[in-house]
Design a protein that fits this description.
- The chain is an alpha+beta fold.
- The protein contains two helices and five strands, in the order αββαβββ.
- The chain has one domain: Roll (Nuclear Transport Factor 2, Chain: A), CATH 3.10.450.
- Helices cover 33% and strands 34% of the residues.
- Strand 3 and strand 4 form a beta hairpin.
- The longest helix has 17 residues.
- It is elongated.
Length: 88
């Protein structure tokens, strides 16, 4: 058996995992759904999600997520459904 075979196999698995990681943000699959957008923001902010509203902005699908934080303040986050990133 070729001594490099286990190393090559491990590298192949690692590269495959990196390629797959592009479709997941903080353990949430992309593109985001209404439920996964709420889960993503709740995990990131630690606050209580009050509402999630889909919003179309040009060709982009966004989710507007309203969150109540522990200090009593409400913040609205906008997430790009395709990337899972917050939009300012």
């Amino acid at each position: 058996m070729n001594p490099l075979r286990p190393i090559i196999f491990s590298l192949t698995l690692a590269i495959g995992s990196l390629a797959y990681a592009g479709d997941v943000v903080s353990g949430v699959s992309l593109p985001l759904t209404k439920d996964s957008a709420a889960e993503h923001i709740q995990t990131q902010s630690g606050g209580k999600v009050l509402s999630v509203d889909p919003k179309q902005e040009g060709a982009k699908q966004l989710f507007r997520v309203k969150v109540l934080h522990d200090d009593g303040k409400i913040k609205v986050y906008q997430l790009d459904a395709e990337t899972g990133l917050e939009v300012q």
